[in-house]
Amino acid sequence: MKQIDVVNHILGNRPRAPQKPEASAFAPSNIALCKYWGKRNDELNLPITPSLSISLGTLGTHTTVSLNPAKDVIILNDRPVPERSRFAKSAVTYLNLFRPTPDTFFLVRTRNSVPTAAGVASSASGFAALALALNDFFGWNLERKDLSILARLGSGSACRSVYEGFVEWHAGADADGMDCYAEQMEETWPDLRLGLVSVSTAPKDVGSRSAMKRTRRTSALYESWPIKVSHDMALIKEAIRSGNFELLGKVAESNALAMHATAISAWPPILFWLPESVAVMRKIWEQREGGLEAYFTMDAGPNVKLLFLAKDTARVEAAFPGLEITTPFPESATAA
Ligand code: PMV
After folding, report:
1. Which of 167, 94, 115 is nearest to 328 (CA)?
2. Pocket (CB within 6 angstroms of ligand 1)
3. What pTM does this model have?
C-alpha cells in the first residue's frame, strides 16, 4: 500500500481542483507524554504502539496554500526555503500526493509561532496545518479522523496536531492504516504548564525517522518498549481523568527516559543528550527533592520540556531562567 492509495481512498470522489484562491489553517505543536517510537510500516508512518500527547495551545504553525506558476514555492517565516533543503523536499513530496495535474504547483506560506529557539519540532504542526489548509483549499470537508490520517502521511506525530488538548493516537492493526489515527480526549487541565528549556538549536545528527528504525532493528531493549507503553498509556489516562499531577509527571518522565534508553542501546548508539541536557535533568531531580513538583520529558533531541502546575510558575522560572512557558489549555480554548 502506497501513500497515494491512502489519499485516493480518503478523498474518494471529492474535488481534486481548488475551490478558492487560497486557504489558511493553524495547527498546534504537540509534545508526547507517552512517546511514539518505532513503526510497523515506514511508508505510511504506522506506529507499533499507541501514544498520547498534549497540544501546545497557541504555539504551532499557520499555513496558507494557493497555486503558483511553474514550480512549488515554500516560504517559511517570510523567507523562501531553498529547493534542495530537506524541509522543501519533504513539503514537495507531500504536495505531490494532492497535485490536481503534474503541472499544477503550489505556493505554501508557513509561519511558526513556536520560537525557533525553543527546541520544539515544527514538523508535526507543519504537516497538520498543511493538511488542514489543503482540506479547505480543495473544499473536501473531511472529518478530523481522516485529516489525522492525511497529516500522518507527512510525519507520524502530525496526526496528533490536528487536535487541541490531550490527544491519543491509536496504533491500529490494519495494513492500510485506516484504523490508525488520533482522537482528542475530552478532559482539559487549565493549570498545566509546559516549560521549554532550549539546550541547542543545531540540527540533530540523527533524525527521528532513522533513529526509530535503527533502534527497532538493533536495540535489545526495544522488545520491552511496547510493554512499557501499554502500562504508561493506562496510567497517563488515569492521571488525566483523576487530575493526579504526580502520576502524570512520573509516568511521562519515565516514559521519555525509557525511549531514550532504547536509543542509547541501539547500534551504532544514538544519544540525543548533550551535557547541558543532563544538567537540566539533574536540576529537576534536585528541585523535586526540595519539594518542587516538576517533571520533564524529552524527544529526539537535546532539549528538555518541563511539566508543572500554574501555582509553581514563579519557582520554576527562578530555577530555570529564560524558560519559555506555554499554556496547553489557554483560557479562550477552555472557556466553552
Ligand atoms: O513524527 P516524527 O517522525 O517526527 O517522530 C516523533 C517522535 C518523538 O517526537 C520522539 C515522539 C513523539 O511521540 O512525538
Report:
1. 167
2. 32, 35-36, 51, 121, 123-124, 155-157, 208-209, 299-300
3. 0.96
